[in-house]
Structures are given as C-alpha cells and as structure tokens.
Known about the structure:
The chain is of the alpha+beta class. It is built from three helices and five strands.
Amino acid sequence: MSDRDRRTSEPAGLDGLPPLYSIAKGEVVSVQTYGAFVRLPGYRKEGLVHVSEMSASRVESASEIVDVGEHVWIKVIGREIQGDKVKLSFSMKAVNQGTGRDLDPNNVMAEQDSRRRKQFRDQTSNRITLEAVLNTTCSKCGCKGHFTKDCFSAPGLQYALLPEEDDEEPEQQPSTAAQNQDSDKKKKKKEKKAKKKSKKRERKESESDSSSSSECKTKRRRQEHERDRDDKKKKKHKKHKSHKHS
Length: 246
C-alpha cells in the first residue's frame, strides 16, 4: 500500500483523529443554519462547530460568523463513536481567533458543554406517551376519557355499587345540622340588626328630648328676664309719681 492510500484510508475507531482538547486551524467546508463543518489539515474527517460554540454571545445562524473557504481556529471538545460513524465536535469561542490562544486552558467550558449535550440528547429508543384525558364518552362502557376501541371492559352486564343505608344516614345528619346552624346564624344576624336599629332610635329620641328641654329652658329664662324688666319699670314709674305729688 502506498503512502497516498494510507492518507486517504479512513482511520478505525478514534485512532488517527485529532487529540481531545487540541487546538488547530482548519478550513470551513460547509455552512448550515445550525453550525459549520471544518476540515483540519492532514485529516479526512470533518468536525462540526455548533452555533452555540461559535461565539460567547447568541448566534442565530452560522452564516453570520463564517463563510465557506474561511480559515478559523478551533478546539477539539468532543470525539464520539455512534454506530459506524465518528463525530467530532469543535469550538471556536474557546480559542482566540486572532492569535490561536486557548481561552479555556482548564477545559471547564468544554466539560460543561459535554454534560449539557448528554442531558438534552434525543433518546429515540424511549417512546414518549402523553397521559392526557380525552373529552370523549365510550359507547361500550359509558365512561369518559377514552375511545371505544381502547376500552378494556369485558362484554356483558355492568353492575354498579350502591351505597349502604348506614353510610347514607350519617351523610344526612350533618346536612340537617348544617341547616340548623345556618338558621341559627340568620336569627342571630336579625337580632343584631334589630338591636342596632333600636339603639339608633333611642339615641335620636334622647337627642330630640335634650334639644326640646334646652329650648324650654331658654324660653323660661327669657320670660323671667322680661318679667324682671317689667317689674323694674313699674317700680321706677311709681317712684317718679310719688316725687311729683310731694
């Protein structure tokens, strides 16, 4: 086998791939809305730079950051084998695009992103079922919440449990007691209202009596004052007459 055939042959497993957390400069070969594919020199396998790994700020589309044929600095943050395929994950925000300096030397951001990808990975093998209640009535059993085809009831007569007499009596007793309590409350409210009205009437009467008594007192005082004046005038008049006769 020639050297050219060895270079073009696909590496088995993770052998011959760029080491994890290594930094290299590659060429953008494809741009999609979700990210850009970058090819490193000396490697046939391409890696994906997701839009979340292009910049520290939010990126809506990869075309806003890179174009096809552009050379960018990347950091290898993931190497996974899924079946017969090997997936490479690159990051641009972990490398200074001007100097190629590693901005995440301790690989803290890379580990956080890998954990996040594992948590939100789509598990297609696990079937998702919705536990929703349907607003339908089954024509087979008469119950609500499922279709007739999904009904699990066996054909035949349907029996329903009747409540026992002992169970019914205590249910009626609290109802009568509750009624009695309600009637007592209503009576108490009426009595309170009647008391309030009677108190108001008494206050009004007392106020009217006090006002009338005060008016009578003032009238009496005026009358007495007028009498005193008249008596004084009469006395003066008599004295004046007596002086004239003398």
